[in-house]
Amino acid sequence: MTLRLTYPATAEDYRERARARLPRFLFDYLDGGATDEQTLRANETEWGSIKLRQRVLIDVDQVDTSTTLAGESCAMPAVLAPLGLAGMMARRGEVQAARSAESAGIPFTLSTVGICPVEEVQAAVTRAAWFQLYMIRDRARIKALLTKAWEAGCQTLVFTVDLPQPGMRHRDFRNGLSVTGPRAKALKVVQLLSRPGWLWDVALRGGPLNFGNLSDVVPDAGDLDAFKAWIDAQFDPTVTWADIEWLRRHWKGTLLLKGILDGDDARQAVNVGADGIVVSNHGGRQLDGVASGAGKLPDIVAAVGSETEILVDGGVRSGVDIFRALALGARGVMIGRPWAWALAGAGEAGLNNFLASLQQELRLAMTLTGVTRIVDIGKDQLDRYPEPGKRGEK
Ligand SMILES: Cc1cc2nc3c(=O)[nH]c(=O)nc-3n(C[C@H](O)[C@H](O)[C@H](O)COP(=O)(O)O)c2cc1C
Question: What's the CATH number for 10-383?
Answer without folding.
Answer: 3.20.20.70
